[in-house]
Amino acid sequence: MIETSSLSLQSTRGRPSTRGRLDTGRTAKGSQTRDRILESALLLFRDQGYEQTTMRAVARDAGVALGNTYYYFESKEHLLLAFYERLHQEHLAAALPLLDRERDLKKRVRGVIAAKIDASEPYHRFSQLLFKTAGDPRSPLNPFSRESAVARRQSIGLFDSVVAGSIKKIPEDLRGELPYLLWLYHMGIVLYWIHDESEERAKTYRLLDTTVDLVIRVVTLSGLPGLGALRRRAVAMIKDLRPA
Amino acid sequence: MIETSSLSLQSTRGRPSTRGRLDTGRTAKGSQTRDRILESALLLFRDQGYEQTTMRAVARDAGVALGNTYYYFESKEHLLLAFYERLHQEHLAAALPLLDRERDLKKRVRGVIAAKIDASEPYHRFSQLLFKTAGDPRSPLNPFSRESAVARRQSIGLFDSVVAGSIKKIPEDLRGELPYLLWLYHMGIVLYWIHDESEERAKTYRLLDTTVDLVIRVVTLSGLPGLGALRRRAVAMIKDLRPA
DNA sequence: CCGGTTTCCTGAACACGTTCAAGAAATCTC
DNA sequence: GAGATTTCTTGAACGTGTTCAGGAAACCGG
Protein backbone atom coordinates (compact mmCIF):
# COMPACT_ATOMS: atom_id res chain seq x y z
CA MET A 1 0.00 0.00 0.00
CA ILE A 2 1.64 3.16 -1.14
CA GLU A 3 0.04 5.42 1.40
CA THR A 4 1.58 3.65 4.36
CA SER A 5 5.03 3.38 2.92
CA SER A 6 6.11 6.62 4.52
CA LEU A 7 5.38 5.26 7.97
CA SER A 8 8.41 3.82 9.62
CA LEU A 9 8.55 1.03 12.11
CA GLN A 10 12.19 1.68 12.78
CA SER A 11 12.81 2.55 16.34
CA THR A 12 14.52 5.85 16.89
CA ARG A 13 16.48 4.45 19.78
CA GLY A 14 20.22 4.03 19.54
CA ARG A 15 20.70 7.14 17.47
CA PRO A 16 18.21 9.52 19.02
CA SER A 17 17.63 13.02 17.74
CA THR A 18 19.58 14.52 20.58
CA ARG A 19 20.73 18.07 20.73
CA GLY A 20 24.49 18.28 20.45
CA ARG A 21 25.76 17.68 23.91
CA LEU A 22 23.99 14.43 24.61
CA ASP A 23 25.06 12.52 21.54
CA THR A 24 24.96 9.24 23.37
CA GLY A 25 25.13 5.61 22.53
CA ARG A 26 28.09 5.89 20.23
CA THR A 27 29.88 2.85 21.46
CA ALA A 28 28.41 -0.61 21.77
CA LYS A 29 28.89 -0.44 25.50
CA GLY A 30 27.16 2.89 25.81
CA SER A 31 24.20 1.78 23.77
CA GLN A 32 23.79 -1.32 25.90
CA THR A 33 23.83 0.69 29.09
CA ARG A 34 21.24 3.04 27.69
CA ASP A 35 18.97 0.15 26.90
CA ARG A 36 19.41 -1.38 30.33
CA ILE A 37 18.46 1.90 31.99
CA LEU A 38 15.45 2.36 29.74
CA GLU A 39 14.29 -1.20 30.33
CA SER A 40 14.53 -0.84 34.09
CA ALA A 41 12.64 2.41 33.95
CA LEU A 42 9.82 1.03 31.82
CA LEU A 43 9.31 -1.92 34.13
CA LEU A 44 9.29 0.25 37.21
CA PHE A 45 7.00 2.81 35.61
CA ARG A 46 4.52 0.12 34.66
CA ASP A 47 4.64 -1.69 37.98
CA GLN A 48 4.57 1.17 40.41
CA GLY A 49 3.86 4.30 38.44
CA TYR A 50 5.98 7.27 37.51
CA GLU A 51 5.97 9.23 40.73
CA GLN A 52 6.74 6.19 42.86
CA THR A 53 9.70 5.26 40.69
CA THR A 54 12.89 6.91 41.89
CA MET A 55 15.91 7.53 39.75
CA ARG A 56 17.92 5.70 42.37
CA ALA A 57 15.77 2.62 41.89
CA VAL A 58 16.15 2.83 38.11
CA ALA A 59 19.91 3.06 38.47
CA ARG A 60 20.03 0.21 40.96
CA ASP A 61 17.94 -2.11 38.78
CA ALA A 62 20.02 -1.26 35.74
CA GLY A 63 23.18 -1.90 37.72
CA VAL A 64 24.70 1.53 37.23
CA ALA A 65 25.43 4.53 39.39
CA LEU A 66 22.81 7.19 39.90
CA GLY A 67 24.68 9.81 37.93
CA ASN A 68 25.03 7.55 34.94
CA THR A 69 21.31 7.67 34.21
CA TYR A 70 21.76 11.37 33.67
CA TYR A 71 24.43 10.74 31.11
CA TYR A 72 21.90 8.98 28.89
CA PHE A 73 18.70 10.78 29.84
CA GLU A 74 18.57 14.47 30.51
CA SER A 75 15.90 14.07 33.15
CA LYS A 76 13.28 11.73 34.52
CA GLU A 77 10.79 13.24 32.10
CA HIS A 78 13.01 12.38 29.16
CA LEU A 79 12.90 8.80 30.33
CA LEU A 80 9.14 9.06 30.11
CA LEU A 81 9.42 10.55 26.65
CA ALA A 82 11.45 7.54 25.57
CA PHE A 83 8.63 5.40 26.86
CA TYR A 84 6.09 7.23 24.77
CA GLU A 85 8.22 6.80 21.70
CA ARG A 86 8.23 3.07 22.26
CA LEU A 87 4.50 3.10 22.88
CA HIS A 88 4.02 4.84 19.57
CA GLN A 89 5.97 2.10 17.80
CA GLU A 90 3.68 -0.50 19.34
CA HIS A 91 0.66 1.51 18.31
CA LEU A 92 1.97 1.77 14.79
CA ALA A 93 2.62 -1.95 14.57
CA ALA A 94 -0.90 -2.66 15.73
CA ALA A 95 -2.48 -0.17 13.35
CA LEU A 96 -0.62 -1.00 10.13
CA PRO A 97 -2.43 -4.25 9.24
CA LEU A 98 -5.77 -2.52 9.56
CA LEU A 99 -4.65 0.37 7.39
CA ASP A 100 -3.52 -2.03 4.72
CA ARG A 101 -6.76 -3.96 4.77
CA GLU A 102 -9.58 -1.51 5.42
CA ARG A 103 -10.48 1.39 3.13
CA ASP A 104 -13.59 2.81 4.75
CA LEU A 105 -12.67 6.08 6.45
CA LYS A 106 -14.87 5.58 9.48
CA LYS A 107 -13.49 2.13 10.17
CA ARG A 108 -9.94 3.36 9.63
CA VAL A 109 -10.35 6.18 12.13
CA ARG A 110 -12.09 4.00 14.64
CA GLY A 111 -9.55 1.23 14.23
CA VAL A 112 -6.51 3.43 14.63
CA ILE A 113 -7.82 5.09 17.77
CA ALA A 114 -8.95 1.79 19.25
CA ALA A 115 -5.48 0.40 18.56
CA LYS A 116 -3.98 3.30 20.44
CA ILE A 117 -6.17 2.69 23.44
CA ASP A 118 -5.45 -1.02 23.39
CA ALA A 119 -1.73 -0.45 23.14
CA SER A 120 -1.84 1.99 26.03
CA GLU A 121 -4.00 -0.15 28.28
CA PRO A 122 -1.16 -1.80 30.22
CA TYR A 123 0.01 1.67 31.18
CA HIS A 124 -3.35 3.23 31.95
CA ARG A 125 -2.44 3.88 35.56
CA PHE A 126 0.42 6.16 34.77
CA SER A 127 -0.57 7.42 31.35
CA GLN A 128 -2.23 10.13 33.34
CA LEU A 129 1.14 11.77 33.25
CA LEU A 130 0.93 12.24 29.54
CA PHE A 131 -1.62 14.94 30.02
CA LYS A 132 -0.22 16.06 33.29
CA THR A 133 2.80 17.31 31.46
CA ALA A 134 1.24 17.76 28.06
CA GLY A 135 -0.16 21.08 29.13
CA ASP A 136 3.14 22.50 30.28
CA PRO A 137 4.87 24.37 27.47
CA ARG A 138 8.21 23.90 29.14
CA SER A 139 7.94 20.16 29.43
CA PRO A 140 9.59 17.96 26.82
CA LEU A 141 6.37 15.94 26.84
CA ASN A 142 4.28 18.86 25.77
CA PRO A 143 2.97 17.74 22.39
CA PHE A 144 3.96 21.08 20.92
CA SER A 145 7.51 21.17 22.22
CA ARG A 146 10.55 20.86 20.05
CA GLU A 147 11.68 17.69 21.77
CA SER A 148 8.48 15.82 21.09
CA ALA A 149 8.24 17.17 17.55
CA VAL A 150 9.39 13.89 16.09
CA ALA A 151 6.87 11.84 18.01
CA ARG A 152 4.12 14.31 17.21
CA ARG A 153 4.85 14.38 13.51
CA GLN A 154 4.83 10.61 13.48
CA SER A 155 1.57 10.58 15.35
CA ILE A 156 -0.07 13.03 12.97
CA GLY A 157 1.52 11.18 10.08
CA LEU A 158 -0.44 8.14 11.06
CA PHE A 159 -3.62 10.08 10.44
CA ASP A 160 -2.23 11.25 7.13
CA SER A 161 -2.28 7.61 6.14
CA VAL A 162 -5.72 7.11 7.58
CA VAL A 163 -7.06 9.80 5.28
CA ALA A 164 -4.91 9.08 2.25
CA GLY A 165 -5.76 5.41 2.18
CA SER A 166 -9.51 5.81 2.38
CA ILE A 167 -11.91 5.84 -0.53
CA LYS A 168 -14.06 8.61 0.92
CA LYS A 169 -14.57 11.75 -1.13
CA ILE A 170 -13.31 14.68 0.91
CA PRO A 171 -13.33 18.33 -0.15
CA GLU A 172 -9.81 19.33 -1.18
CA ASP A 173 -9.39 22.15 1.33
CA LEU A 174 -10.57 20.04 4.23
CA ARG A 175 -8.46 17.10 3.15
CA GLY A 176 -5.27 18.99 3.97
CA GLU A 177 -6.32 19.74 7.53
CA LEU A 178 -8.24 16.57 8.28
CA PRO A 179 -5.27 14.52 9.54
CA TYR A 180 -4.44 17.20 12.08
CA LEU A 181 -8.07 17.45 13.13
CA LEU A 182 -8.33 13.70 13.54
CA TRP A 183 -5.17 13.74 15.60
CA LEU A 184 -6.69 16.38 17.88
CA TYR A 185 -9.86 14.33 18.08
CA HIS A 186 -7.86 11.26 19.04
CA MET A 187 -6.13 13.26 21.77
CA GLY A 188 -9.54 14.10 23.16
CA ILE A 189 -10.54 10.45 23.25
CA VAL A 190 -7.29 9.59 25.01
CA LEU A 191 -7.90 12.32 27.57
CA TYR A 192 -11.28 10.77 28.33
CA TRP A 193 -9.74 7.31 28.49
CA ILE A 194 -7.25 8.51 31.07
CA HIS A 195 -10.04 9.37 33.43
CA ASP A 196 -12.19 6.39 32.53
CA GLU A 197 -12.36 3.81 35.30
CA SER A 198 -15.33 1.89 33.92
CA GLU A 199 -15.17 -1.87 33.43
CA GLU A 200 -13.01 -2.69 30.41
CA ARG A 201 -13.03 1.02 29.51
CA ALA A 202 -16.53 0.46 28.18
CA LYS A 203 -17.34 4.13 28.41
CA THR A 204 -14.37 5.13 26.30
CA TYR A 205 -15.40 2.70 23.59
CA ARG A 206 -18.98 3.99 23.68
CA LEU A 207 -17.64 7.52 23.36
CA LEU A 208 -15.45 6.48 20.47
CA ASP A 209 -18.22 4.70 18.61
CA THR A 210 -20.65 7.55 18.97
CA THR A 211 -18.31 10.39 18.21
CA VAL A 212 -16.59 8.70 15.30
CA ASP A 213 -20.00 8.52 13.75
CA LEU A 214 -20.55 12.23 14.31
CA VAL A 215 -17.13 13.14 13.01
CA ILE A 216 -17.55 11.22 9.77
CA ARG A 217 -21.03 12.63 9.38
CA VAL A 218 -19.65 16.14 9.64
CA VAL A 219 -16.99 15.34 7.06
CA THR A 220 -19.66 14.01 4.74
CA LEU A 221 -21.99 16.93 5.28
CA SER A 222 -19.19 19.41 4.71
CA GLY A 223 -19.09 18.28 1.10
CA LEU A 224 -22.65 19.32 0.40
CA PRO A 225 -22.92 22.29 -1.94
CA GLY A 226 -24.91 24.44 0.46
CA LEU A 227 -22.33 24.13 3.22
CA GLY A 228 -19.28 25.10 1.20
CA ALA A 229 -19.04 28.59 2.64
CA LEU A 230 -19.21 27.39 6.22
CA ARG A 231 -16.64 24.69 5.55
CA ARG A 232 -14.24 27.10 3.87
CA ARG A 233 -14.52 29.43 6.81
CA ALA A 234 -13.79 26.65 9.28
CA VAL A 235 -10.81 25.40 7.29
CA ALA A 236 -9.43 28.92 7.03
CA MET A 237 -9.70 29.31 10.77
CA ILE A 238 -7.85 26.07 11.42
CA LYS A 239 -5.06 27.02 9.05
CA ASP A 240 -4.78 30.38 10.75
CA LEU A 241 -4.82 29.14 14.32
CA ARG A 242 -3.09 25.83 14.14
CA PRO A 243 0.17 26.04 16.09
CA ALA A 244 3.28 26.23 14.00
CA MET B 1 -31.93 39.01 37.73
CA ILE B 2 -33.19 35.79 39.16
CA GLU B 3 -30.97 33.49 37.23
CA THR B 4 -27.78 34.89 38.64
CA SER B 5 -28.97 34.95 42.21
CA SER B 6 -27.57 31.53 42.92
CA LEU B 7 -24.07 32.67 42.06
CA SER B 8 -22.11 33.70 45.05
CA LEU B 9 -19.40 36.27 45.22
CA GLN B 10 -18.51 35.23 48.74
CA SER B 11 -14.98 34.05 48.97
CA THR B 12 -14.56 30.58 50.34
CA ARG B 13 -11.41 31.56 52.13
CA GLY B 14 -11.26 31.61 55.88
CA ARG B 15 -13.55 28.65 56.28
CA PRO B 16 -12.47 26.39 53.47
CA SER B 17 -14.13 23.10 52.70
CA THR B 18 -11.30 21.17 54.24
CA ARG B 19 -11.40 17.51 54.97
CA GLY B 20 -11.54 16.88 58.68
CA ARG B 21 -7.98 17.03 59.85
CA LEU B 22 -7.08 20.36 58.38
CA ASP B 23 -9.91 22.42 59.86
CA THR B 24 -7.77 25.50 59.98
CA GLY B 25 -8.23 29.14 60.63
CA ARG B 26 -10.38 28.72 63.72
CA THR B 27 -8.80 31.45 65.73
CA ALA B 28 -8.31 35.01 64.59
CA LYS B 29 -4.58 34.53 64.75
CA GLY B 30 -4.65 31.38 62.67
CA SER B 31 -6.79 32.93 59.99
CA GLN B 32 -4.44 35.89 59.71
CA THR B 33 -1.44 33.66 59.30
CA ARG B 34 -3.20 31.67 56.61
CA ASP B 35 -3.90 34.84 54.69
CA ARG B 36 -0.33 36.05 55.03
CA ILE B 37 0.99 32.78 53.64
CA LEU B 38 -1.47 32.79 50.76
CA GLU B 39 -0.67 36.40 49.91
CA SER B 40 3.06 35.73 49.84
CA ALA B 41 2.53 32.70 47.66
CA LEU B 42 0.34 34.53 45.14
CA LEU B 43 2.86 37.33 44.77
CA LEU B 44 5.75 34.94 44.30
CA PHE B 45 3.78 32.75 41.89
CA ARG B 46 2.89 35.73 39.75
CA ASP B 47 6.36 37.30 39.80
CA GLN B 48 8.54 34.28 39.30
CA GLY B 49 6.25 31.38 38.44
CA TYR B 50 5.23 28.30 40.31
CA GLU B 51 8.27 26.10 39.87
CA GLN B 52 10.69 28.89 40.78
CA THR B 53 8.81 29.66 43.96
CA THR B 54 10.08 27.63 46.89
CA MET B 55 8.09 26.86 49.98
CA ARG B 56 10.98 28.28 51.97
CA ALA B 57 10.60 31.60 50.16
CA VAL B 58 6.86 31.62 50.79
CA ALA B 59 7.44 30.98 54.48
CA ARG B 60 10.16 33.63 54.70
CA ASP B 61 8.04 36.30 53.01
CA ALA B 62 5.10 35.46 55.22
CA GLY B 63 7.32 35.62 58.28
CA VAL B 64 6.65 32.09 59.49
CA ALA B 65 8.59 28.87 59.76
CA LEU B 66 8.69 26.47 56.86
CA GLY B 67 6.65 23.84 58.63
CA ASN B 68 3.89 26.28 59.39
CA THR B 69 2.92 26.60 55.76
CA TYR B 70 2.10 22.90 55.86
CA TYR B 71 -0.20 23.47 58.77
CA TYR B 72 -2.44 25.63 56.61
CA PHE B 73 -1.86 24.10 53.20
CA GLU B 74 -1.49 20.40 52.66
CA SER B 75 0.98 20.87 49.81
CA LYS B 76 2.35 23.35 47.34
CA GLU B 77 -0.36 22.30 44.91
CA HIS B 78 -3.04 23.16 47.43
CA LEU B 79 -1.57 26.62 47.56
CA LEU B 80 -2.06 26.77 43.82
CA LEU B 81 -5.63 25.53 44.20
CA ALA B 82 -6.30 28.40 46.59
CA PHE B 83 -5.02 30.70 43.89
CA TYR B 84 -7.43 29.30 41.34
CA GLU B 85 -10.32 29.77 43.73
CA ARG B 86 -9.43 33.41 44.02
CA LEU B 87 -9.07 33.69 40.26
CA HIS B 88 -12.55 32.27 39.87
CA GLN B 89 -13.93 34.94 42.18
CA GLU B 90 -12.34 37.62 40.01
CA HIS B 91 -13.73 35.99 36.91
CA LEU B 92 -17.17 35.89 38.46
CA ALA B 93 -17.02 39.53 39.44
CA ALA B 94 -16.04 40.48 35.91
CA ALA B 95 -18.74 38.36 34.31
CA LEU B 96 -21.73 39.26 36.45
CA PRO B 97 -22.44 42.73 35.00
CA LEU B 98 -22.52 41.29 31.51
CA LEU B 99 -24.86 38.50 32.55
CA ASP B 100 -27.24 41.02 34.07
CA ARG B 101 -27.21 43.21 30.99
CA GLU B 102 -27.00 40.98 27.95
CA ARG B 103 -29.59 38.39 26.97
CA ASP B 104 -28.30 37.12 23.63
CA LEU B 105 -26.82 33.65 24.15
CA LYS B 106 -23.93 34.08 21.78
CA LYS B 107 -22.84 37.31 23.40
CA ARG B 108 -23.25 35.83 26.86
CA VAL B 109 -21.05 32.85 26.05
CA ARG B 110 -18.46 34.97 24.31
CA GLY B 111 -18.46 37.54 27.09
CA VAL B 112 -18.05 35.05 29.90
CA ILE B 113 -15.18 33.25 28.23
CA ALA B 114 -13.48 36.50 27.28
CA ALA B 115 -13.81 37.61 30.88
CA LYS B 116 -12.11 34.44 31.99
CA ILE B 117 -9.20 35.01 29.65
CA ASP B 118 -8.87 38.63 30.68
CA ALA B 119 -8.92 37.75 34.35
CA SER B 120 -6.28 35.09 33.82
CA GLU B 121 -4.00 37.23 31.68
CA PRO B 122 -1.73 38.44 34.50
CA TYR B 123 -1.00 34.83 35.31
CA HIS B 124 -0.60 33.52 31.79
CA ARG B 125 2.99 32.50 32.35
CA PHE B 126 2.20 30.04 35.07
CA SER B 127 -1.37 29.16 34.22
CA GLN B 128 0.25 26.46 32.21
CA LEU B 129 0.26 24.55 35.43
CA LEU B 130 -3.49 24.40 35.46
CA PHE B 131 -3.43 21.93 32.65
CA LYS B 132 -0.19 20.39 33.67
CA THR B 133 -1.93 19.04 36.71
CA ALA B 134 -5.45 19.03 35.37
CA GLY B 135 -4.81 15.78 33.60
CA ASP B 136 -3.57 13.97 36.67
CA PRO B 137 -6.44 12.21 38.45
CA ARG B 138 -4.50 12.24 41.69
CA SER B 139 -3.89 15.96 41.67
CA PRO B 140 -6.16 18.22 43.69
CA LEU B 141 -6.18 20.49 40.66
CA ASN B 142 -7.65 17.89 38.40
CA PRO B 143 -11.01 19.38 37.45
CA PHE B 144 -12.68 16.08 38.26
CA SER B 145 -11.15 15.55 41.67
CA ARG B 146 -13.06 15.72 44.91
CA GLU B 147 -10.99 18.62 46.16
CA SER B 148 -11.75 20.85 43.22
CA ALA B 149 -15.40 19.80 43.12
CA VAL B 150 -16.47 23.08 44.69
CA ALA B 151 -14.56 25.18 42.20
CA ARG B 152 -15.78 23.06 39.32
CA ARG B 153 -19.40 23.22 40.33
CA GLN B 154 -19.10 26.98 40.64
CA SER B 155 -17.48 27.15 37.26
CA ILE B 156 -20.17 25.06 35.60
CA GLY B 157 -22.76 26.98 37.56
CA LEU B 158 -21.65 30.10 35.81
CA PHE B 159 -22.64 28.53 32.51
CA ASP B 160 -25.95 27.51 34.06
CA SER B 161 -26.61 31.21 34.39
CA VAL B 162 -25.35 31.90 30.90
CA VAL B 163 -27.96 29.53 29.51
CA ALA B 164 -30.79 30.31 31.93
CA GLY B 165 -30.55 34.05 31.40
CA SER B 166 -30.67 33.98 27.63
CA ILE B 167 -33.71 34.39 25.45
CA LYS B 168 -32.67 31.72 22.98
CA LYS B 169 -35.01 28.81 22.35
CA ILE B 170 -33.17 25.63 23.22
CA PRO B 171 -34.54 22.08 22.98
CA GLU B 172 -35.41 20.87 26.46
CA ASP B 173 -33.16 17.82 26.47
CA LEU B 174 -30.16 19.78 25.24
CA ARG B 175 -30.83 22.59 27.67
CA GLY B 176 -29.98 20.35 30.61
CA GLU B 177 -26.57 19.41 29.24
CA LEU B 178 -25.67 22.67 27.55
CA PRO B 179 -24.03 24.33 30.57
CA TYR B 180 -21.70 21.38 31.00
CA LEU B 181 -20.91 21.39 27.29
CA LEU B 182 -20.20 25.09 27.31
CA TRP B 183 -17.93 24.59 30.30
CA LEU B 184 -16.00 21.92 28.39
CA TYR B 185 -15.83 24.24 25.41
CA HIS B 186 -14.48 27.02 27.58
CA MET B 187 -11.83 24.65 28.93
CA GLY B 188 -10.75 24.00 25.37
CA ILE B 189 -10.38 27.70 24.68
CA VAL B 190 -8.35 28.12 27.84
CA LEU B 191 -6.08 25.26 26.82
CA TYR B 192 -5.43 27.04 23.55
CA TRP B 193 -4.85 30.32 25.35
CA ILE B 194 -2.22 28.70 27.55
CA HIS B 195 -0.13 27.88 24.51
CA ASP B 196 -0.90 31.11 22.70
CA GLU B 197 2.06 33.45 22.53
CA SER B 198 0.67 35.73 19.83
CA GLU B 199 0.54 39.49 20.33
CA GLU B 200 -2.25 40.37 22.77
CA ARG B 201 -3.47 36.76 22.51
CA ALA B 202 -4.97 37.74 19.19
CA LYS B 203 -5.14 34.15 18.06
CA THR B 204 -7.13 33.07 21.08
CA TYR B 205 -9.66 35.81 20.44
CA ARG B 206 -9.94 34.84 16.79
CA LEU B 207 -10.48 31.24 17.85
CA LEU B 208 -13.11 32.33 20.34
CA ASP B 209 -14.98 34.49 17.86
CA THR B 210 -15.05 31.86 15.16
CA THR B 211 -15.91 28.89 17.33
CA VAL B 212 -18.54 30.64 19.40
CA ASP B 213 -20.28 31.27 16.11
CA LEU B 214 -20.10 27.60 15.23
CA VAL B 215 -21.26 26.50 18.67
CA ILE B 216 -24.31 28.71 18.63
CA ARG B 217 -25.07 27.65 15.10
CA VAL B 218 -25.04 24.01 16.15
CA VAL B 219 -27.36 24.79 19.06
CA THR B 220 -29.72 26.55 16.68
CA LEU B 221 -29.60 23.82 14.08
CA SER B 222 -30.20 21.16 16.71
CA GLY B 223 -33.69 22.58 17.17
CA LEU B 224 -34.71 21.92 13.59
CA PRO B 225 -37.34 19.17 13.27
CA GLY B 226 -35.28 17.03 10.91
CA LEU B 227 -32.35 16.87 13.28
CA GLY B 228 -34.22 15.80 16.39
CA ALA B 229 -33.10 12.20 16.22
CA LEU B 230 -29.44 13.11 15.88
CA ARG B 231 -29.70 15.59 18.71
CA ARG B 232 -31.40 13.14 21.03
CA ARG B 233 -28.72 10.60 20.33
CA ALA B 234 -25.97 13.10 21.10
CA VAL B 235 -27.62 14.22 24.31
CA ALA B 236 -28.13 10.63 25.41
CA MET B 237 -24.46 9.95 24.83
CA ILE B 238 -23.40 12.95 26.88
CA LYS B 239 -25.66 11.96 29.76
CA ASP B 240 -24.24 8.46 29.63
CA LEU B 241 -20.59 9.38 29.42
CA ARG B 242 -20.35 12.54 31.43
CA PRO B 243 -18.20 11.86 34.50
CA ALA B 244 -20.09 11.56 37.74
C1' DC C 1 -6.17 32.73 88.23
C1' DC C 2 -5.14 27.47 87.25
C1' DG C 3 -4.87 23.13 85.00
C1' DG C 4 -6.14 20.90 80.90
C1' DT C 5 -7.03 20.91 76.14
C1' DT C 6 -6.89 22.45 71.68
C1' DT C 7 -4.71 25.18 68.25
C1' DC C 8 -0.70 27.03 66.33
C1' DC C 9 4.18 27.12 65.33
C1' DT C 10 9.14 25.55 64.96
C1' DG C 11 13.33 23.75 62.70
C1' DA C 12 15.79 19.60 62.09
C1' DA C 13 15.56 15.63 59.23
C1' DC C 14 14.22 12.78 55.19
C1' DA C 15 13.87 11.29 50.36
C1' DC C 16 13.88 12.95 46.07
C1' DG C 17 15.65 14.87 41.26
C1' DT C 18 19.63 16.83 39.65
C1' DT C 19 24.64 18.47 39.14
C1' DC C 20 29.44 18.04 38.94
C1' DA C 21 34.36 17.24 39.52
C1' DA C 22 37.01 13.53 39.03
C1' DG C 23 38.50 9.24 37.32
C1' DA C 24 38.06 4.70 34.48
C1' DA C 25 37.50 2.61 30.07
C1' DA C 26 37.28 2.62 25.26
C1' DT C 27 38.85 4.49 20.99
C1' DC C 28 41.89 6.83 17.97
C1' DT C 29 46.48 8.40 16.02
C1' DC C 30 50.87 7.55 14.81
C1' DG D 1 51.63 -0.64 21.43
C1' DA D 2 52.17 4.40 23.70
C1' DG D 3 50.17 8.48 24.21
C1' DA D 4 46.31 11.50 23.42
C1' DT D 5 41.52 12.06 23.09
C1' DT D 6 36.93 10.92 23.59
C1' DT D 7 33.35 8.39 25.85
C1' DC D 8 31.54 6.50 29.84
C1' DT D 9 30.94 5.98 34.94
C1' DT D 10 31.05 7.20 39.72
C1' DG D 11 29.19 8.92 44.22
C1' DA D 12 29.22 12.91 47.05
C1' DA D 13 26.74 17.15 47.40
C1' DC D 14 22.99 20.63 46.56
C1' DG D 15 18.32 22.44 46.78
C1' DT D 16 13.75 20.93 46.77
C1' DG D 17 8.92 19.48 48.83
C1' DT D 18 7.39 17.25 52.77
C1' DT D 19 7.14 15.14 57.60
C1' DC D 20 7.31 15.06 62.43
C1' DA D 21 8.31 15.25 67.37
C1' DG D 22 8.07 18.58 70.35
C1' DG D 23 7.13 23.08 72.27
C1' DA D 24 4.56 27.76 72.62
C1' DA D 25 0.33 30.23 72.62
C1' DA D 26 -4.56 30.64 72.91
C1' DC D 27 -8.74 29.05 74.86
C1' DC D 28 -11.91 27.05 78.30
C1' DG D 29 -14.22 25.22 82.43
C1' DG D 30 -13.80 25.63 87.48
What does this structure look like?
The structure is a homodimer of 244-residue chains. The first copy, chain A, is mainly α and 244 residues long. Chain A has ten helices and no strands. In chain A, helix 4 (76-101) runs antiparallel to helix 5 (105-120), helix 7 (149-164) crosses helix 8 and helix 8 (172-195) packs antiparallel against helix 9 (202-221). The longest helix of chain A is centred in the middle third of the chain and has 26 residues, at 76-101. Chain A is elongated and about 65 Å long. Chain A starts with 27 loop residues before the first helix and ends with a helix. Chain A binds a DNA duplex (30 and 30 nucleotides) through residues 24, 26-27, 29-30, 33, 54-56, 64-68, 70-72, 75-76.
Key traits:
67% helix, DNA-binding
How would you sum up this structure in a few lines?
Chain A has helices spanning about 30-50, 55-60, 65-70, 75-100, 105-120, 125-135, 150-165, 170-195, 200-220, 230-240. Chain A has about 240 residues and is mainly α. The longest helix of chain A has 26 residues, at about 75-100.
